[in-house]
Amino acid sequence: MLSIIIPVYNEGENIQSLVDELYTYTNKETEYIFVDDGSTDNTFAALELIAEKDSNIKCISLSRNFGHQNALMAGLQHSKGHTIIVMDGDLQHPPSLIPALLKKIDEGYDLVQTRRTSTKNIGLGKHLLSVVFYKFINAISDTRIEEGVADFKAFNRKVLDSILRFDERELFLRGIFSWIGFKTTTIDFKAPDRKFGKTKYSFTQMLRLALKGTTSFSFKPLRVALLAGSFISLAAFAFGIFALLSYYKGNTVPGWASMIIAIMFLGGTQLLAIGLLGEYIASLFTETKKRPLYLVNKTVNI
Ligand code: UDP
Ligand code: MG
After folding, report:
1. How far does the centroid of ligand 1 lie from the alpha carbon of residue 201, in Å?
2. Considering only 99-113, 172-186, 207-221, which range has the smallest mean pLDDT?
3. Alpha-carbon distance 234 to 228, whole Å?
4. Residue span of the structural domain in which 75 resides
């Protein structure tokens, strides 16, 4: 049996065409798990209507908006299939790719990742941020996280059971999927533009995800801060000796500029290091609280 998991947040306009397309590319042995991530539009009503006619359409409605990654986890925890597909609900992950994904699973791959080849219309800011983020994270992390890899994948039970063993609050599933290993392959697809609605990942949300991805997959940024801090402190110390020597030699200089530069530079790096430390402490904080990843308000056909 196949489970298709789709987190949806205010995708009311997309639901019907998505379900129609899904029916075209899947057979009767499929459960469709929609996770309504606290939508404020008619998403849940639209889903309920369709679910009345087909018991394979299942809905989990979360008590509020918990974010894409957590919604995905809710779906994963409720899925029953031998093969699992996760995808977005905005038709940017074309259901027509499903047969190709399943073919790779049949060929013996445990995990089939997909990569977007067209990223037009995502905005310069988001594009730059994503390029910088992937370059940065791959430079500092031991786990390679490929750029453009979408949250559109197929995998088997074995992979799902491995993913479910992760008990992390600061979920960064993209990283986890490349961390777990297993026999993996990647296929490319062209992401069409959104038909309705607009992206729910704002620039700040992307930034938050990027930070989450960085601090949950590497301790090296801490080391960078430490190294840079030590180096700059040493340089400042040497400069201090130099200044003292000049003073005794009698070449006292006004020195205001160099002083202010040193102060600002040191202050800056210190703040940077403290901020970085703060990120790690914040994630420790959320981890130790062990709050649930999501809360369910209602379910249909589950
Ligand atoms: N989504 C969600 N919760 C959120 C934000 C988004 O469940 O808080 C869903 C959204 O409905 C869509 C998928 O996650 O099905 C991807 O979101 P979006 O298309 O906005 O992201 P983008 O494709 O722009 O990266
Ligand atoms: Mg999208």
Report:
1. 6
2. 207-221
3. 10
4. 2-200+293-300
Would you say residue 233 lies in a domain? yes
Ligand having the closest approach to the CA of 60: 1
Q: What DSSP string describes 37-60?
A: -S-SSSHHHHHHHHHHH-TTEEEE
pTM of the model: 0.76
What are the strands, taking DSSP E only, across 55-183?
57-62, 83-86, 111-116, 153-156
| Interval between CA 8 and ligand 1 midpoint (Å) | 7
Ligand 1, atom 25, residue with closest C-alpha: 201
Q: Ligand 1 pocket by C-beta < 6 Å: which residues?
A: 7-9, 11, 37, 65, 67-68, 71, 88-90, 92, 199-201
Number of helical H runs and strand E runs in the chain:
10, 8
* pLDDT for residue 120 is more than 70: no
Both 283 and 154 in one domain: the answer is no
- What's the whole-number average pLDDT of the chain? 84
- How many angstroms does the Cα of residue 122 sit away from the middle of ligand 2? 10
Instruction: Give yes or no: residues 57 and 94 share one domain.
Output: yes
* pLDDT digit string, tens, across residues 94-114: 999 999 999 999 999 999 999
pLDDT at residue 31, as a whole number: 94
**Domains: count for the chain:** 2
Per-chain residues with Cβ under 5 A from ion ligand 2? 88, 90, 92
User: Does 144 lie in the same domain as 35?
Assistant: yes
pLDDT at 133: 77
Q: Give me the amino acid identity at 279.
A: E
* Other beta carbons within 10 Å of 260: 10
What is the pLDDT averaged over residues 151-161? 93
- Closest ligand to residue 87's CA: 1
The answer to whether residues 187 and 77 belong to one domain is yes
Judgement on whether residues 131 and 69 belong to the same structural domain of the protein: yes
Q: Are residues 10 and 124 in the same domain?
A: yes
Asked, for residue 110, whether it belongs to a domain, the answer is: yes
